Amino acid sequence: MDDSLRPPSFQPAGDVEELSFGGSVRPGRTPRSSFDDFDAGNGDNPNNPKRSHLWVRVVVGLVTAALLASGGGWTWWMWDTRWRPIDVTVDSGTGAETVRTHVGVTVDVLLERNGSFGRMPGRLLAIDGSELKADGGGSVKVTVDGTDVPHGLWSDTVVPEHAAVTVANGDDVTEEHTVRHDTVAFGTDDVDLTGVIQRFRQAGRNGEREVWVGKESGIEVDKGLTEQPVEMIVESVTPRPAGRKVIALTFDDGPSQYSAPVLDVLKEKKVKATFFDLGEQSLAWPDAEKRMVAEGHQVASHSNTHPNMPDLDADALRAEITDGFANLKAASGVETTAFRSPYGAFGVKQWEAAGDLIGMNVLWDIDTRDWSMPGANAIHDAVMKDAHNGAIVLMHDGGGDRSQTVEALPRIIDDLRKQGYEFVTIDQLIKLSGK
Ligand SMILES: [Zn+2]
């Protein structure tokens, strides 16, 4: 090598072993160089000091060079894979912007250093849509070069140089829920018990409602009917046949020994009436029952044993009605669903429980109170005082001493007839009224 090309540090300085660092030039050999200090344990061989120092210095130099070389490589590698600035394009919903980051950046780091570019995770919503947690929903949504990067892959996904990144708000997530089905009781608004004759038109049926219950919030949301309830319908009829002057005589609690005298009067006066008979009495007086039918009267049921129906549970109520009709049929041969509840007592609950068993519950317009034995005149006067077209008159041919009823009956019929009344059965009354 031409000495003129050498850097100053390599100019001969007298001693071949001299090493130079950082361009400094040692002015001459010194007995103990700084490197000698490294060899303090085994150097300074008195027999060959120069040779010993030489080897040490060569090894140290080689190691240093290797370190520097490898250090440079590491630096370069870090530069190329970790530190080198790169640009990516980020669109967070307000237009693309160029973002300076570094090579090898992962999605999670890019978002963390840039505040997720202003985007937010979705909310966790309660089942009713109210907010349970502001950030409990889906994570911020990221795509890199058109590919979705799920949250779980953010830390493993490197964003390439010049990548097109989109960042969007996370989706709201609604809490999980359980589904419950509640019974919706059918309505009774269409149960009209204001009329003198009440007829069962439609059985009620319960519906069903679906309710969602939030698993976290416990909030309930009505999702509406899954099965529509069916209203119970009982209609009321108060017959007033147009252009007529009719009246219906009715006799309860029989048959008994007073049925025959009553039937005798009716036969003599050529009047048709209606008998609301007890099932057990019908069985006890089957001849009276058959005579009523034979002579053109209407027979109907007044229950089997005359209980107060509201005191009965549903099963007993139904049994009373069913047995009453069955015994009436056994005694009279007549199958009917015409009914008068004892004391007239038959409310919404009874209609719910047994409305399907009866076609109608027949009440009355005129109560003679003959059962209290007020005297034949009082019974007669009670009818005449309130007589009107379509009236239903309540009397009794059973349940006690009905001699006053038998006594009053001929005059009641005669006086009504004088006023122009015709006598009809309940079925005839309903038919005449067109209902
Ligand atoms: Zn009665």
Automatic annotation (TrEMBL):
Transmembrane segments: 54-79
Stored InterPro entries: Glyco_hydro/deAcase_b/a-brl (IPR011330), NODB_dom (IPR002509), Polysacc_deacetylase_ArnD (IPR050248)
Disordered: annotated span: 1-50
Keywords: Hydrolase, Membrane, Metal-binding, Transmembrane, Transmembrane helix
Gene Ontology MF: a single term: metal ion binding
Alphabetical list of Pfam families matching this protein: Polysacc_deac_1
Entry-linked CDD domains: CE4_NodB_like_6s_7s
GO BP annotations listed: carbohydrate metabolic process
Cellular component, GO, one term: membrane
PROSITE patterns with a match to the protein in the record: NODB (PS51677)
NodB homology domain location: 245-424
Protein name, as recorded: Polysaccharide deacetylase family protein
